Amino acid sequence: MATRESVKHMLYHIVDYYAPELVTIGTVLFSKPEYGFFEFATQRYMMRFLRELGVAPTTVARTGFVADIGDKKSTSVIALVADMDAVCCPDHPRSDAQTGAAHACGHHAQLVHLLGVCWALKVSGLLESLHGRVRLIGAPAEEFIQLDERLALRESGAIHFLSGKQELIHLGIFDEVQAVLSVHVAHQSPEPQLFLSDGAAGFELLRIRFPESRDPRTPSSLYRLNLLIRMLQLADPQGQRLRWHVLDREEDDTEGVLTLDIYFVEESRQAIQASIDQIEALVAQLEGLVHYRCIVERYPGYWPLRQSKDLHYLFAHNAVPFIGKAQVQSPPLLEGSTDLGDLSQWLPVAQPFWGGVSGHAHQADFDVVDKEAVYLWPIKTLLGTIVDLLWDNAAILHQVVARFQPTITKQGYLQEMERQYEGISRRLPGESGT
Q: Is 412 contained in some domain?
């Protein structure tokens, strides 16, 4: 009779056997970046491969996909999530020459992880030893970019929410899921290390437009924008809570209007609201000084990520045989934000970060330097964690779920998101802005 550890080692041997093919897939996907909700070629590539493995994926969330493997009747369901989209980095050596998209965040590696886990479980025939299901999810649009394009998709009815996992939540893809697993790469970490952080900050976005006035006594839009930026610098001199980006006139969808995007990055939603209140007060102060109104639009971003310590313990336990205990690190918070944070409010979630990458995230020097650490060890660690969770009638999974403390229900989350989306004010052509 097979033991839990013997099942793990059989799966690891399969990953080793198919390692050259998996690395090749990673190289191919690295060179085929696409923007969020436009990952059509990536979707076709992944779904074709899954069908060749005997899996029946379905299209979801425009360019995503979902497929279940394992006991179809089981209520013990683990989601394995792979982000699909790229960032805008035209200077990256593997960027798309036409769009400027580049996998300079490493989402292509997550797709390899998903295929590798599926491949090992299907080829081994060991799914019968596991009492549960694994839901394979290709999630589009994790990067919060190209806002106007996504708003156009929303207005056309192609999507409901502006990010991939938010859209998947809206569609009910996580309704049966009891825990969520994913693995990311860690930038500026060429050594094979595993980073298990407590979580990541959330964010929201204010878009502030500065229309020109016909009154010659009113300061120009450029003067008003620069004055607000100076106010922001005084409000956050270290640049830790606020990040802003001035859109070019041709980049904005409203001709002749300068636009400032301000991202509010905080560890809690209460802190995000407090920061927004502060900046809205500054905007009101600016309007009082120049006697001319700005156009302010508020967009829901991502909720703070809450990592499951129970799931992290399993990841660490299964990673140590490959990298050693000394290479497992526990930083307090991740840089940046992720829409995985939305799910973590009512589901146990874990997204450890693996080293093996040089350079900076979202920049031209980002590169895979240790293919085993980036592509193969995460697959093995995921497989070991899945076996642990589903072994013995999914006893450990049930323990993880029982100990988890949600902050909100899925229904409460959707109600809050709908409320925020209803509050978005879009500037229509012909409005004066006064």
A: no
Has residue 252 got a pLDDT over 60? no
pLDDT band of residue 214 (cuts 50, 70, 90) is confident
For 99-144, give the DSSP string. T-EE--S-HHHHHHHHHHHHHHHHHHTGGGGS-SEEEEEEE---S-
Q: Are residues 85 and 168 in the same domain?
A: yes
342: Cα within 13 Å, side-chain hemisphere: 26
Cα of first residue to Cα of last residue in the chain, in angstroms, is 77
pTM of the predicted model, to two decimals? 0.94
- Cα–Cα distance, 2 to 127 (Å, whole number): 12
Pair (316, 188) in one structural domain: yes
CA 63 distance to own-chain centroid: 15
Total domains in the chain come to: 2
Q: How far is CA 11 from the centre of its chain?
A: 28
In a domain, residue 416? The reply is no
* Type of residue numbered 405: Q
Mark whether 389 and 370 lie in a shared domain: yes
Residue 91 and residue 186 in one domain: yes
pLDDT digits (tens, 9 = 90+) for 340-351: 999 999 999 999
pLDDT of 255 higher than 60: no
CA distance 97 to 102: 10
Q: Which two tokens stand for residue 287?
A: 């309007």
How much is the average pLDDT of 286-302? Answer: 92
Least Cα distance to 268 among 144, 401, 408 occurs for: 408
Is there a single domain that holds both residue 120 and residue 53? yes
Beta strand 353-354 pairing with 194-195: antiparallel
pLDDT for residue 415: 97
What three-state secondary structure class fits 246?
Answer: strand
Examine the domain organization and report whether 275 and 297 are in the same domain.
yes
CA–CA gap between residue 364 and residue 195 (Å, rounded): 23
Whole-number pLDDT of residue 256? 58
CA dist 391 and 397 (Å) reads: 9
Q: What is the mean pLDDT of residues 254-283?
A: 87
200-232 as b/e: b if 16+ CB within 10 A:
bbbbbbbbbbbbebeeeeebebeebbbbbeebb
Residues 381-400, buried b or exposed e (16+ Cβ, 10 A)? bbbbbbbbbbbeebebbeeb
Backbone angles phi, psi at 396, to 5 degrees: -70, -40
- Residue numbers of the domain that contains 165: 4-199+304-403
Residues 75 and 181 in one domain: yes
Contact between 142 and 398 (Cβ < 8 Å): no
